[in-house]
């Protein structure tokens, strides 16, 4: 059922990036890139003005699988003939001409919806199906927040536990709150908690991350290995994305589960930062000084240039990091390092293909992974517990106070109105870019991150 003035537009999947090589050159900003791997396209936006043939090849491969899975799922669910969804996506214009330019009628004609109706008619239908609320104004329903409140907090009973720990978002060094990023110290602390808890008999690490800091990824991996050393099985359940650093932390698990459309792999590493010596010189700013060692000039790097000798050191570190990444995967998956390199080099794989390449073990969802972990731990009865970082009472008070202050000052309404204004896209883009660069905080400036997957 859809509003008679609604629309369904199926864009398909695409991967389009913004390339800033010429832009940086115009500003005389020097980009310093260190990488290993044919397909490590993470830094291409800074080095090119278009997507490389290698990146296009890799992107077409996984996007094609995602599209085929989407099409087959929709056609099966809607009982449509094979090719109906692709025809709608590629020929929407001609289809609309047959229904006087109506998006809604085009969707109805194709079979993507069953009925077109107004909002009032939809409300009446829902009332007939589910009954009225007590006030009689609407149909019986529950808000999403209320629903979550009702189901969250699975109670830990007397049975042994299978602990579920989620690493979602970019992997960053240090701590990070859930929902913002996967802080290496934060995830490692949760894994350690599961390791030391005698009632936890198995751990499921749910990974939904494009990777990030190589250092933070290794901190998390160390805790996975520590859990395994105690004899507790560790099973990884991959979400929609478990690539690069996300795969780094997955590799040592006893078993890896992925969905057919999980984006994974991207076994590669890179370093990147800018210096502004030429930009500064344009406005008469220079850096000069003396140091006691050959490494001292790095203290001036930024406004000052990056010395070639230091660039060489960084490149060596990146190459070492890639070799270590190959070893991490090889050891965790029981694969020869040469073979890992052949499926690595930063290339992205889709879940079903990754299984064939032995990068994952089985295809399934989180429940399948939990059941497998329990079986490995020889548990017939068990409780599933989510291990999350709990806020202190003081942090909860501060969070509530900030919401109340915003509401009382009217600032909340102003923020809402601002977001609805004409500049909301620019503001959102600026916030997004700022958050993006803040995530690059690896102490060694080395990153196992799949930017092409995000």
TrEMBL record:
InterPro entries: ClpP/crotonase-like_dom_sf, Pept_S49_pIV, Peptidase_S49, S49_SppA_C
UniProt-listed GO biological process terms: signal peptide processing
Family matches, as Pfam families: Peptidase_S49
Statement: the UniProt record of this protein carries the keyword Coiled coil: no
Protein keywords: Hydrolase, Protease, Serine protease
Coiled-coil segments: none
Domain Peptidase S49: 2-120, 228-379
Cellular component terms (Gene Ontology): membrane
Family that this chain belongs to: Belongs to the peptidase S49 family.
Record's protein name: Signal peptide peptidase SppA (Protease 4)
Organism: hydrothermal vent metagenome
């Amino acid at each position: 059922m859809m509003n008679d003035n609604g629309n369904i537009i199926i864009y398909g999947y695409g991967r389009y990036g913004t390339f800033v090589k010429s832009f940086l050159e115009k500003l005389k900003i020097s980009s310093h890139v260190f990488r290993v791997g044919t397909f490590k396209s993470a830094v291409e936006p800074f080095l090119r003005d278009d997507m490389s043939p290698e990146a296009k090849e890799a992107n077409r491969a996984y996007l094609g699988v995602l599209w085929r899975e989407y099409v087959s799922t929709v056609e099966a669910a809607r009982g449509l003939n094979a090719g109906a969804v692709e025809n709608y996506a590629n020929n929407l214009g001609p289809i609309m001409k047959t229904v006087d330019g109506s998006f809604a009628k085009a969707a109805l004609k194709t079979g993507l919806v069953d009925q077109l109706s107004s909002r009032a008619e939809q409300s009446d239908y829902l009332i007939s199906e589910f009954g009225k609320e007590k006030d009689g104004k609407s149909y019986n329903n529950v808000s999403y927040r209320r629903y979550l409140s009702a189901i969250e907090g699975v109670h830990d009973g007397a049975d042994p536990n299978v602990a579920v720990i989620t690493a979602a978002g970019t992997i960053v060094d240090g701590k990070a709150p859930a929902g913002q990023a996967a802080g290496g110290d934060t995830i490692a602390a949760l894994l350690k908690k599961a390791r030391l808890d005698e009632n936890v008999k198995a751990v499921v690490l749910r990974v939904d991350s494009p990777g990030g800091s190589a250092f933070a990824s290794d901190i998390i991996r160390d805790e996975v290995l520590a859990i395994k050393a105690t004899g507790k099985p560790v099973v990884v359940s991959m979400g929609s994305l478990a690539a690069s650093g996300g795969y780094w932390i997955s590799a040592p698990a006893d078993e890896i589960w992925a969905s057919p459309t999980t984006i994974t792999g991207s076994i590669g590493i890179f370093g990147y930062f800018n210096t502004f010596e030429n930009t500064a010189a344009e406005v008469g700013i220079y850096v000069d000084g003396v140091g006691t060692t050959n490494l001292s000039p790095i203290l001036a790097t930024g406004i000052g240039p990056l010395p070639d000798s230091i660039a060489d050191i960084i490149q060596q570190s990146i190459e070492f990091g890639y070799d270590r990444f190959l070893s991490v995967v090889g050891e965790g998956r029981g694969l020869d390092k040469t073979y890992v390199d052949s499926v690595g080099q930063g290339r992205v794989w889709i879940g079903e293909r990754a299984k064939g390449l032995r990068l994952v073990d089985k295809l399934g969802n989180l429940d399948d992974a939990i059941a497998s972990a329990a079986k490995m731990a020889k548990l017939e009865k068990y409780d599933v517990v989510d291990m999350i970082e709990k806020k202190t009472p003081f942090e909860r008070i501060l969070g509530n106070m900030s919401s109340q202050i915003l509401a009382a000052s009217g600032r909340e309404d102003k923020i809402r109105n601002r977001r609805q204004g004409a500049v909301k896209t620019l503001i959102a883009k600026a916030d997004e870019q700022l958050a993006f660069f803040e995530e690059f905080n690896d102490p060694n400036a080395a990153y196992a991150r799949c930017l092409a997957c995000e």
